[in-house]
């Protein structure tokens, strides 16, 4: 893996080079093993948190971990194109627009003992800007090359905090063209529901049951690229104990091996249908 500037990453994408890199500020990673009509993203996978922010942060390390999406990069790491965040969403949230990306409060609790100085905010927001410069270059290249593209936007959510039964998988579709892509969404929902988990975990999947696909990452791509479907795909945190901060590696491995087959199968059906 190389360390590259955003300018160098964008140049490699424009030239259709194959590479694996971390951004020079260590904010995100990108891997392109081949140029295909689908990409995977794990924008909340990261847990890094700048040391200069530690003493001023009220939330504990565990509270930050609880709201992040650990292991979502591992679930899609084998696919040809993967982009993933390295930093915690508590530093800046890639699923919020720039004006909301640096939190003042987080999940009902004040985040900072003292308000962040503008210099610190700017440092975080520059990482946000850089990430979306690369996303824009990547999706632009895939649309130019294939005419159509699908992005699997992987997230997780804390199912134990709900006071009702919630699905193992939730697809958020409120900001996509459902008239055009509704059948593709349903095929993805159905495929996810067929996954066989270990440990007696059920695999249920629903659309807009817990979350609705309101994230900035999806909205940014959908606004700027008319032929790209973003599938906001949330897995309940059945792959960890969200209160004890324990990861279940056998469950993560199951998801990864299932998606290794199901995800390209779905992408292929999407491409065959939508490119005609």
From TrEMBL:
InterPro entries: N-FG_amidohydro (IPR007709). Gene3D superfamilies: Zn-dependent exopeptidases. SUPFAM superfamilies: Zn-dependent exopeptidases. This is N-formylglutamate amidohydrolase. It comes from Gilvirhabdus luticola.
């Amino acid at each position: 893996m190389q360390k590259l500037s955003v300018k160098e990453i964008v140049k490699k994408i424009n030239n259709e080079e194959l590479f694996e890199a971390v951004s020079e500020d260590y904010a995100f990673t990108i891997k392109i093993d081949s140029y295909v009509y689908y990409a995977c993203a794990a924008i909340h996978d990261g847990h890094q948190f700048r040391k200069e922010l530690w003493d001023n942060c009220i939330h504990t390390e565990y509270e930050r971990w609880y709201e992040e999406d650990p292991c979502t990069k591992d679930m899609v790491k084998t696919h040809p194109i993967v982009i993933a965040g390295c930093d915690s969403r508590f530093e800046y949230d890639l699923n919020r627009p720039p004006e909301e990306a640096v939190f003042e409060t987080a999940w009902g609790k004040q985040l900072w003992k003292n308000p962040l100085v503008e210099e610190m905010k700017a440092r975080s927001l520059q990482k946000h800007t850089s990430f979306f410069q690369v996303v824009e270059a990547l999706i632009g290249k895939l649309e130019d090359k294939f005419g159509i593209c699908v992005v699997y936007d992987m997230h997780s959510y804390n199912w134990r905090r709900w006071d009702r039964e919630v699905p193992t998988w939730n697809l958020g579709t409120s900001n996509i063209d459902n008239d055009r892509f509704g059948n593709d969404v349903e095929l993805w929902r159905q495929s996810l529901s067929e996954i066989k988990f270990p440990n007696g975990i059920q695999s249920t999947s629903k659309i807009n049951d817990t979350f609705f696909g309101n994230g900035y990452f999806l909205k940014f791509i959908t606004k700027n690229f008319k032929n790209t479907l973003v599938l906001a795909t949330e897995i309940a945190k059945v792959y960890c104990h969200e209160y004890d901060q324990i990861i279940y590696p056998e469950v993560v491995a199951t998801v990864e091996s299932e998606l290794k087959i199901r995800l390209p199968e779905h992408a292929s059906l999407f491409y065959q249908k939508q490119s005609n």
